[in-house]
Every structure is written in structure tokens, then in C-alpha cells.
Amino acid sequence: MYEAADLRKGLKIEIEGEPYTVVDFDFVKPGKGQALYKCKLKNLITGSQFDRTFRSVDRFVPANLEEQEMEFLYQEGEQYCFMNTSTYEQIHMDKEQVGQAKNYLLNNLTVNVLLFRDRPIAINLPIFVDLKVVQAEPGIKGDTASGASKPVTLETGYVIQVPLFVEEGEKLRLDTRTGQYVSRVK
Amino acid sequence: MEDPLARLAANRDRLNRRAEVLRLIRTFFFAEGFLEVTTPVLSPTLIPEEHIEPIACEGGFLLPSPELHMKGLLAAGYEKIFQIGPVFRRGERGRFHLPEFTLLEWYRAGADYEALIRDCEQLLAVVARKLFRSLRIPVGNAGIDLTPPWPRMRIRDAFQRVAGWDPIEQRSPDRFEEDFALRVIPALDPGRPTLLLEFPEYEASLARRKAEDPRVAERVELFAGGLELANGFTELVDPREQRFRFEQVNRSREKSGRKAFALPEMFLAWLPALKPCAGMALGVDRLVMLFSGADRIEDVIAWVP
Fold first, then answer.
1. Is the Cβ pair A27, B49 closer than 8 Å?
2. Is the Cβ–Cβ distance between B244 and B269 less than 8 Å?
3. What letters, b where the CB count within 10 A reaches 16 and e where it falls short, cover B239-275?
4. CATH number for the domain including A27?
5. Are the CB atoms for A25 and A38 separated by under 8 Å?
6. CA-CA distance, B90 to A124, in Å (whole number)?
7. Residue B51: closest CA among chain A residues belongs to which residue?
8. Where are the extended beta strands (E) located within chain B?
9. CA B173/CA B181 separation, integer angstroms
């Protein structure tokens, strides 16, 4: 059990059966009054945020969260199938749970799946992922410095803005935190 | 983690400002004829407080306030005393809080809290004039005007205005403390110091009740620039009532699962010798924050405990 005095940014707690992380924290206490712990909490399943103020008598259950390395196997309709790389057990996640990660999910990509009470709730991607361009309009020769960009489609179906010199068939490195192009990969 | 020595070197201006403020406080109280005293930090007994947790040490406590021993000096006949020293409060850490901080505390025999209010107004004016040659200090969004007399607001009026209820008519400590911290304080004028006075007696276990209305205690709090700077009372000197109030504090602590404190019998035994008096405690670190525009308490101390 955590006490209110343990609250700090990044602490993960369970409230009414759902996992939350403290994203913002403020200690408020007039000298003679009781301590109040003002928190901004983020639901780790839905991503929604809300403010809540706790008192020193409040107690919290640590959120039972675990990361497990898994390999992406395939997509079938709205279901995404992953395999636990240590037990070879397979699990399914739906479109909502996968979220933006779908843009980078290529067969055999290794990711970390966040489990809450053994249920998958989110995917932590590697920071950089390399994907091949499957469709691109031809660029204008020599124009490398103007900052102009064009859209290309990657092998996962993800459409992204890239510099004009990028051609079909090339492999690109993407930053999964920003969703942006980083460089070409030889 | 930041290198502590680099932090110290970078913080020279603020630490200089701190030293100036400390010197000006002493100059002010010496000019007013006060005696500077030193009382124990480590003590086997303490004054029971509902919401202040002491740090246990050597079979006693690192004291959260010098009040007990300073009142002993008053009982022995000292009339105007002040002290600047470290105090300790377990579990307090935040933008404006640290478990160890520096408190200025002063007492005047034969006075009530009106005298304390004048002391605060004059002390801050002296410091402002020395540091800025002006009573308008250039901190916060639009500066703060410290020209006395400062606006005053009765707790009852402040609550009715922003929280919509009267804490004198309705006894509700939990609701009081939450609304005070989250609604009343944030609504105070950022451009002027504010004196909040006439607290409900259930929020002032060491203050004298008002003769005209015993539900109200002669407690005053000073706020400036969003900071709770100082707290003072016309002191309660009736030993029977003080014992009763301490027992109330202990009952309330036990009701919410906290340990009751042993009553400070020595202190209660001194009270009959205590003349009417008034005392105030002012957070020195926060005063330095005010006069240096710092927005975190760590910024005005050399070493973070």
C-alpha cells in the first residue's frame, strides 16, 4: 500500500480497478491545516486525465503493471496477434488498445506490451523503427535543402511526410515518439 | 541530479538576498527593543497540533515550533523576545514546503494580535525600503504594493465570498481546511498583502477566543504573493481552557487513526504566570522567496534537506 505522502510524479496506482499514473503533483498545506495532495492522474487504459486531491489519510494500491516482450505476428480484421517471446503464448489486442502503434506494426517486430493484472493495455514501441516505402511520387532532382516535403505510403499503410528526395523502395527510419521521418536507411 | 556545488555557485544572488533579509529582521527587532533568544530544537515534550507531525529523535522530538519554550520565557517575565531558527515538520515537501525550514517567531507581553499586525506591516516595509528603496516590490506579474495598512478580511467574509458558506456558523474542520487551501487562498489579491483574521476557534487551539463571540478566535494569517507568510494569535493563557483544547486536538487525532501526544504538563503549569500576550511565526524562507521573486523554496536555501 502507498500512503498519500508517497505520491509523486510517475507513481502508478490503482483506483476503482483501473491503473493510473500521476502526471502532475502539488503538495498544498496551510501551516495549521491538513496536508492536501493535488494530483493530475492519467488513466493508462483510456489515456483520459483528471484532477484529484487526496488527504494524508488516503491509501493506494500499487497498480499491478508489468512489461512483457512480445513479437507481432499478424493482424486479422480489428484484432492484432502477438506472441510472448519467453512463453510463446499468443495474445490478442484490439484496434483501440493498439492505438497509434498500428502505424509501425510489421510482422516479427518486437515490442513491449504493458500488462495490467495480466491483461494487455498498451504497446511500448522501440524508439526507432525502419519501414519500407511502398508508394511515392517522384521527387524533383537536386531539391534537398528547401524543406519541402511530400507524402509517401509505408509498408504498414502509414502515410507520412518526407523530404522530396525519398524514393519508392527505400527504407526509412521513423521516430515512434513523434511519428516523424528521421533518415533513410542504407 | 544537479551538482550541489554548481547549484550553490549559481545561487549566490539569492543567498546574498537571504543574508540581507536575516540581517534586516534582526535590525528591526533590535530597534523595537526585543531580546533575541535561543530555545531548544530537541525536546522531550511538545505542543500537540492536529496537523503538524514532529520528527522523533533521541526519545523526544525535533520541534516543529519554538512556541513552548518561548512561552516559558514569557512566563518567567521576559516581555519582548524573538528567535530565528530551524524547525522540523515530518512529511512536508513541496514547492513551498521542506521538512526543515527557518522560522522567525516573536512574542509581545501585554499586547494582542493588533500589535503583531503592525509588526508585520513595519517589518516588511523596512525590508522593502532597504532592498528596493520602495514599498512597491518588483515581483510577481505586476509587483506587490506593501504600503501599510494592509487589506484585512475576516475568515467568515472570505469564505462566504469564494466558498459560499460560513465556517463560524457551521463547524466543519475538514471542509474548512480543504476550502481554505484550494479556494480561499488562491483567490487572494496578488498585488497586495492580505491579513485574514478571526478564525473559527476549532482552527486555532492556541488562540484566545473573542469576548463578543466565543466561536471566533483571535488568530491572524498573513498572505502575500500567493505565499502563506505568517500566523499569529492573541495567545490563550487560561490553563484550563488550554488543557481542554489540547484534549480536543488529541481526540480528533485519535479519531482519524493518528497518535495522540502526551500533554505538555510543564507548559500548562507555566500558563498561570503568563500575562496576556501575542505571538507570531513567520516563514523566513518564504519571506526571502517574496523578496527575491523565487518560486520554489529550494531556490532560497543553500542545502536542500
1. no
2. no
3. beebeebbeebbebbeeeeeeebebbeebeebbeebe
4. 2.30.30.30
5. yes
6. 38
7. A34
8. 35-36, 42-43, 55-57, 60-62, 80-88, 100-109, 136-137, 144-145, 152-154, 194-200, 216-224, 227-234, 277-283
9. 12
CB contact under 8 A, B49 and A33: no
Q: What is the CATH number of the domain that holds A155?
A: 2.40.50.140
The count of other CB atoms within 10 Å of the CB of residue B24 is 20
Q: Name the helix (H) or strand (E) containing A16.
A: none
Q: What is the ipTM of this complex?
A: 0.87
Give me the total of CB pairs closer than 8 Å, taking one residue from chain A and one from chain B: 57
Please give the Cα distance from B283 to B279 (Å, whole number). Answer: 14
User: Nearest by CB to B257, which of A5, A26, A57?
Assistant: A57
Whether this prediction's pTM lies above 0.80 is answered by yes
How many Å apart are CA B17 and CA B137, to the nearest integer? 14
Q: Which of A62, A77, A110 is the last residue of a domain?
A: A62
Domains, chain B: 4-149+261-300 (3.30.930.10)
Closest chain B residue to the Cα of A35, Cα to Cα: B51
pLDDT means per 10 residues in chain B (305 residues)? Answer: 84 96 98 98 96 95 98 97 97 94 98 97 98 94 94 98 96 94 95 97 95 96 96 97 96 92 96 96 98 94 91
In which domain, by residue range, is A140 found?
Answer: 128-185
Dist. CA B167–CA B202, nearest whole Å: 10
